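Blackboard transcription, Thursday session:
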Amino acid sequence: MIDSRSLRAVAATTALLAMGACSDLAVPNLNEPERDRALASGADVESLVSGQYRTYWNLVQGSGDYDGSAAAALDALAESIVSNSGNDGTQDAGNLPAAAIPNIVGYRWGRAFREPWLTQNRGLSAIRVGLRAIDELGLSISDGPRLDAFAKLMQGLFHGQIALLYDRGFIIDETVEDVGALELQPYGQVMAAARGYLAQARTIAQANSFSLPAGWLGPAGYSSADLVKIAHSYEARFMASVGRDPAERAAVDWNGVISHVNSGVTADFGVQLDGPGGIWGSPYKARSGVGMSIGLSFLGPADQSGAYIAWENTNAADRAPFDIDTDDRRITDGTPHGPGVLTVWRNFFSNQPERGTYYLSNYGGHWFFDIGETGFGFAPEISVQEMNFLVAEANIRLGDPAAALPTINASRVSLGHLPAATVDGVSGARCVPRAIGPLGKASGQAVGACGDLLTTLLYEKRLAVFQLTAGSVFYDSRGFGALRTGRAIHFAIPGEDLQLLDIPIYSFGGGGPGSAS
Amino acid sequence: MLVVASRAAQPLLVSLLLMGLAFTGASAQQGVISGTVTDAESLRPLASAQVFIGATGIGGLTNAEGGFILLNVPAGQIELSVDRLGYRTATQVVQVQAGGTAVVDFAMNQMAISMEEIVVTGVAGDTPRSQVPFTVERLDVAEMQRVPVASVRGLLQGKLPGVKVIQGSGQAGSEPSMQFRGPTSIMGMQAPLVVIDGVITQGGIADLNTQDIASMEVVKGAAAAALYGSRAQAGVLQIITKSGAGMAEGQSEVTLRTTYEENSLEHTLGTNKSHPWRMDGSGNFLDFNGSPVTLPTRGRSIALNDGGSGTNGGKAFADQQYPGPTRDPLRQFFDPGARMTTNLAVSGNANGTQYFVSGAYTREQGAITLKDPMTQLSVRLNLTQPLAENLNLRLTSYYSDRTRDLVEEQGGFVRQLTFASHFADLLNPDPDEPGGISHIGDPIDVGNAGTNPVNRLVNTTIAEGRSRFIGGVDVRYDPLSWLDITGNVSFDRIDTNESEYQRPGLSQMFKTAKTIGSIREDQDVREEFNASLTASSNRRIGDNFTLRTRARWLVERLDRSGFSAQGTGLPVDQVPRLGIVTGTPNIDSFRQSIRSEGFFLINQFSYNERYVGDLLVRRDGSSLFGEAERWQTYWRVSGAWRVAQEPWFNVGWINELKPRYSMGTSGGRPSFEAQYQTFGISRGQIIPQTLGNSDLRPELATEQEFGIDMVIGQRLQIQASYVDTKVEDQLLLVPQTSAQGFEAQWRNAGRVESTTYELGLEAAIVDNEDMRWTARINMDQTKSFIAELNMPAFEMTNPGRSRARMAIREGGRVGSFWGFQFLRNCADLASSGGGRDCGQFDVNDLGQLVYVGAGNTWQDGVAKGLWGSTGTVDGKTYKWGFPIEPDAGSDLAFYELGNSQPDLNASLGQDFQWNNFGVSFLLDGEWGANIYNMSEQWQCRDWHCAAADMAGVEDALKKPITFFGALQARNQPNSHFVESADFIKLREVSIRYTVPGDRLPNALLQAGLTQATINFIGRNLKTWTDYKGFDPEVGVDSFGGSAVVGRVDEWFVPNFRSVGIDVELIF
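(Written on the board underneath:)
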């Protein structure tokens, strides 16, 4: 017979099971919220939108894990750095003869070319979701104009960056009902849309007074007036940089560029880094002084020994590195291996010779050495120098070359200890730069000739904006025709997205479509 | 004399008594026979043995204590026999005195070949295997204890057809990956459901004490596992621990067992012992100007011995010996040390309470020198207690506590070791820190060899602590003779914490600043609670029909939570505390809960024990399923025909002939996050992540199993199965177009189909009282492919990394390596858009098409000075003698290079027992699988792979260092590093001697010792393989959670072999 105690045990077990069975099988996700919880208040929408600049900054600066930023690959395409490491796609981007950028599924280093596309489109979509949630969920925004202005700024930056990098793009904002029905637009139209958003941002900011909290545009806070300036400066950069070849660059509204620059930032805009493990981590540019080698074709136009001409005239597979003989004190101190202000000769190569001796260079950079060492310090994103060079270029293209000279000669004379350039460019037995290699190709001058003014401007600007932000040198090089023949002038839409869009996979570079002539 | 062991046994003995009376009738010339029946090997009493006297009809069954009593036995000489399933019939002649009692004890020997073992997994109740219409494999304690092993992995490897176990890492305490009958899921879990004494667990098997295990049952297919519903498409492994069951009242046994093993590496990843640098006659390395280089030096400041500028690696060969002492960095630091385990167990039966108590302590030196050994302490208490006449309680409990000093794998230390040359002395002292080790690695190649990995090893501590409690309580109530009701609650809790501490103030590569130090603390708590209520009936209907019915209702709750914090900037050394960090700490936590409930009904029937079958239906509800798909149904239909039991079957030497068929379904659950639409929040930033899916269903496996079981002459058992499986609704993380805003969405978007052939042969070559010699052969093959994929082909990305080597594509196989194929022939050249003039190409000794120029062969490179040159064919430039990559648009650019799944697994086990002496061994192998040797690929980057060693190689076969860099191909997955994984392993060897009680010294006998066994053991003693890595059993568990699928050799701590001695004392 069963005793009462046992009966109680059975009853308790049964009751326990019954209780368990009544449990609800709908379990919330307490780790990651769904939309209604993530965007439950206006503050949440502000968080969603205000976080987007960090996304943008990480991409264009290559912050944190470099894999996923196009910064290194763009430098490799422009040969401002040489690296035959597979990482970041630099070996594939910098190889000779120039080949098409791999755009196959499974390409090991595809993130460098894919991530900017994915991340920025997702950023745009996130802004769309956030702005639409305000109405759909009836949310209250503490400062509507501030949010709207910032959202438009970010829509401008994302679309603008996509237009710089890719041949096509989507135009995504809060008015889009169905993102699945969007069609790809040519980069020109995407850039036009970007400029439209930047204009809207300025309009809202000019009509309202607000403060952008710390964290929105880096650790520092900004005013609505600052936002207006920043938007102007970005637009000036975008306008000048979007051209894929000299013809498109020449066709830029240079008066408009000058106008935007004049309304833009008056001091360098960037981010104060907060150290290792920080939110605003050490960017790609910090590597310039640590592991990267500066390309010989980047520094070669300063060479007076003839070694660079010989190097260019040698079959790529047989090229050996050479020392640059130059009076430009930014590159050497006048001795073969003495350090310049910006570069330093090193008695080793970062790259493996077996992958191509044309990748070898003894030169490293000191542009951002300090932040590379510590992870702290100021990392500029838009510099006044960059803006000045845009105006200088505009002046030349608009027929007022003399107005460009102060900008061209500023660093050249004070740091480079070089003779000032004139409206005719540079001259003399040891002129810097010389029209050699890709830089010389842009000018159309005889090989080895002293650079004309536009060539000199490009040489000087390259030294000024080197690794300022992703593509600093690349965009100018393609617009000036100073990309080596066969280099890709922009990226294809990533193969993974093309598959999803049911579009055949394509690529650029290697002499085919989308290659520098 | 009638001995009653317990109140529970009384009815049985009374029955026996009555039976005896009924059959014999009263007579003055009668006597009594009583005695016990025990297992001859384990000495445990055997219940339910049939004791009988010839054809007299006098007989009965033994009780739970193995006791029997026969009344009214005719006086005189009687031939008494005892029979029991799985045992050889034993007979003794007994002299029965009228009015007297004869006492006879039997010690029965198990039959070497039997299908009468009782199984409990996947069926309606305790069922002989002969009555099961599908495959349920069973491993018993005797087989498992032959070679004592440290983990469940060792108990399974090579033992059963269709069971694959890979230990991806040799790091002590690492979790193995299991797979039954090939891959079932593309992105989901491949591992079977693990049930320990009825406790459903998800926490792994690496920390179980194998000495506690009595038996294991393996249910391999979806049909057989249908009972377990949505968690069982990959099969079920049930582990049954010892309980003291079967021990007689008052009997107890103490077992002390100690195992000591010495471990060592058999194979190592090959390395290049030679170098290509330019040197002078004094042994100095020279720079590009011919000047001696002071070591250590960074990067490539030393010129290459290329006969020219010193920069052309295309003309430099690694064929010179390093000056001074050299060493193999892999051999130097992979030193697996020893393992020692001591286990003390007590089992017995006291006042009806059956118990098993054990404690074990294991200490295992990791595979790397300079690290602390792993230690684990475990205790177990299992009890079975009658509460009342028809009420029993069973309790199982297990606690383990483990600490490990971890080594970074898949990068970090192991990776850096493979980059160091033989010239590097990684134990060089640090000039800045007394007693420290220099941060400079290879002195002639610091730029590429990087920071000295040993410096990081000794200055970084990664400590893991893990404790686990598994407990279960069953209360069984038998209200009727044919009905029992069982309530069960069970619990599995795992606490894991991991801390990482990097010291501050140490020198760094290429930086003047010192390390600032960092600290990380992670904690993870997982609790799984299950409860069930089961009603079981076992009824005989009429004379011929038996029906077993079981209905169960169960609930499950799995809660998991975790916390992590990390910070950088430690102002003082040797104070590993989060509170002192100067940087902004990064803190995170997570919490998740899974709730499920379900019920099943199974009817298992047998007609004349010849026609057997079952019907099963199960309903599962789970919070893991999408809102619209909360409940799912699984089922099974199966049947078998025991032909040899038919009256008309007169082939005497066939003892069992059982064709069988089963068809059923089971599932694979989505992960916790899969159904939710989520916005990630990182440091205050909200980021859309995954698009939700309320229609998400578990994967659905439908399996048909055709099989036949045979026993021939009681000496040979054959089990053969053909299995056809379709796993639909594959759970796939389908990428979204970037405009969608979300990265991906989990969808049911594919189907995997597979076929499996399994064959198990077990033979008793000799089986008598003195000698037993058995052999077992297992063979299996599974072919699976992706029959449907409603998404583009994509990479199986190793989370957080960029080293994926695996991808999936419709029509491809699960576990395939994808990448580019180096051109092999002229057809490849043409299809890849290359030159059409194939006359200027040749095929080298690696099977690669290479450019050689007109009139040359690939062996002319040195003789004609062609290495380092280029040539142009049809407008394309080729490097002389180098492997050629396909064009980006070619089919060869994304090509199925190989597959991790073998074409054939096979094993051969032999066990020989002669009286008290025993020998056994197990050979285990596989054929047809591939491994992606990423470790070697990265070695080749810096020509450190063994193949680049050109010392002593004849000129015609020499290849320059750059050739190997070209093979590395910027780390692109490619055909060269897909290697054959074929191997045969001498998995187990045992030579043992058991000292019987009567031969033990008196002193030991007086101490209570009844038996002593000494066992010389060897594990993984010899591996025959052409694989160039440490061990062909290697893999990454990031691909679908299984190293069996993800067989990428990615800088793991290697597996090792061991020899040792095991001593078991039984008191």
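Lecturer's comment: Chain A is about 45% helix and 5% strand.
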